């Protein structure tokens, strides 16, 4: 084996190790992300006004009057969050629709039915999360 062939093999080995690092890193990120999302979906929402108030009461030693006032504020914040979310939903839907249309244009006729099935599953999962209050 001459020097140039050895250099080529070393270069290919470095590229292979780099590619494997990217692949393993991506897989690890995917696995961690899906586990975190699954854990969040399995738990009831930890950010309810009652839970937040209990935490504030314990950590801040709130008196009953402060608790009442803070509960009102927390409920108003939740209502405002819901309003903002409802205003943004059409924009999310438009972006989703446009992205899906762009994907449809590059798929082959054989891929399109599979894509539609995939979208149905994704949409069902999203509706399920929304109906459970985990949007």
Main features:
2 domains; 4 helices; mainly alpha; 86% helix; 135 residues
What's the short version?
By secondary structure, the chain is an all-alpha fold.
Structural features, described:
- This protein has 135 residues and is mainly alpha-helical.
- The protein folds into 2 domains: 43 residues; 89 residues, no CATH class.
- 86% of the residues lie in helices and 0% in strands.
- Helix 2 packs across helix 3.
Main beta sheet strand tally, sense and closure:
none
Low-confidence stretches: 42-46
Radius of gyration: 25 Å
Can you tell me the overall shape?
flat
- Count of discrete domains: 2
Summed over residues and divided by their number, the pLDDT gives a mean of 84
In percent, how helical is the residue content? over 70%
Instruction: Kindly name the structural category.
Output: mainly alpha
Annotation field: number of helices: 4
Determine the N-to-C terminus distance. 60 Å
Please render the helix and strand layout as text.
Elements: H1 3-42, H2 49-60, H3 64-106, H4 111-131
Helix pairs in contact: 2-3
């Amino acid at each position: 084996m001459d020097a140039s062939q050895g250099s080529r093999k070393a270069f290919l080995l470095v590229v292979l190790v780099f590619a494997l690092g990217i692949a393993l890193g991506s897989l690890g990120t995917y696995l961690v992300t899906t586990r975190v999302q699954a854990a969040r979906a399995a738990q009831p929402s930890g950010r309810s006004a009652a839970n937040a108030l209990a935490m504030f009461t314990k950590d801040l030693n709130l008196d009953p009057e402060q608790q009442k006032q803070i509960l009102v504020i927390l409920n108003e914040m939740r209502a405002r969050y819901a309003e903002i979310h409802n205003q943004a939903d059409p924009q999310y839907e438009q972006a989703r629709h446009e992205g899906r249309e762009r994907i449809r244009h590059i798929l082959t006729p054989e891929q399109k039915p599979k894509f539609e099935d995939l979208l149905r599953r994704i949409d069902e999962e999203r509706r399920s999360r929304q109906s459970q209050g985990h949007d």
